[in-house]
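Sample pair:
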Amino acid sequence: MKSIIRAITSSLLIPALMLLLGCGSGAKQGADKPIATSRDVTPISQASGSQSVAASSEALKFKLEGGSEAFALKPKQDGAKLVDANDKELARLNVDDGQKVKIKDAGDRVLGYVVPEGSYWKIKNAEQTKELYILRRQDDGDYKLEDGGNKEIYRIKKRDYGLEIETPTKQSLYKVKIKDDKTSLRDASDKTVLYTKSGIAPMAIASFGFDVLSREQKAALAYAVNRSGG
């Protein structure tokens, strides 16, 4: 009887041991493979490359010192619209297939155009018969804003902190400073005029320091420059 019991016990122990060994092996293999965490997963945007400024579907929001909203450039299907702090439409910016930006007021009246051509942007009148201003990118990375007669109005110089807007006689007017996720436009006394935490080309926010331009022209130039990444 005892021999029969020993035989039964042995027959039960062997499969049990094999099962335990198999589980141990599986556990070891699982232990060798690290557990994925959220930090190990590459976001889709990173996997496919960083998103370009022009492809951004987010509104560009601009605020005053203190944090109150000044205005925003909101994307729409054929361009963008400029709205004030109360979301009231101030201007419409329509982009054609050639990347030309048509500037309209809230009543749909054409005010002018911004035409990108290579390394410069032309601001034209509503009839497109006259070049009013030209923003030129220089070979050294600096910029110049000229009037329609090629007379220099502003120089935009690269600086360690961002950009500086000067007169032709090197009088400092504004500075664009970049720190962490904040890009700010500051006056000559270093007081913040505008700032944004939206992704934006520094040269785009510099456009709001071009006091010779109208509000609509500034917004359209900033939008056109930002589309091309500056």
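The CA atoms of residues 93 and 131 lie 18 Å apart.
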